[in-house]
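Integral membrane protein
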Amino acid sequence: MEILKNVLVVLHFVGLASLLGGVLVQIRSFKTGRAVVLPAIMHGAWTQLATGLALVAVIEMGDLHESNNAKVAVKLVVVVVIVVVGFLNRKKERPAAWVVPAIGALALVNTVIAVFWR
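Structure:
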């Protein structure tokens, strides 16, 4: 179970890299309002959601350690908001100027929660 958990953590990080990478490559577009929801952002968001749920399941099933259910719930809500906002704006040629920066900010918020909430 420990190996599976570690593989899921690595995949979770890959999802984060894809999500934030998709946002960061568009920083110059923030000023002009031409930033779009790239496929990398959506793939990263879905990967984060799936691997996060799988991680919680593996930790609970394997009795690896006690999971913090409040932290998991907050992180789940944040990633669901990212997925929904991204999904609703993924095919728009020019989504609202706040969409991509908000997705990036929420991804950073989720990372801060993961690191600092013990």
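The helical segments are 2-24, 27-32, 39-62, 69-89, 99-116.
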